[in-house]
Amino acid sequence: MKTRCAVRAQKNRLIKCKIKLTTRTGETYSYYGLFRSTSDAVIDAASRFEAAAIQATAA
To answer: The pTM is what?
Structure first.
């Protein structure tokens, strides 16, 4: 039972991520958000902007 609770708790944990991106026109943006993983942060940035480069790190 303890193991199941620990696994369930980790699924709901959010990580503060810093996303840096550069658009195709050369503009640079940076913002923070709470995501399940850095992969989710990259997917969020890709859906918001037409980016040429995206970097997400746990902050």
So the answer is: 0.73
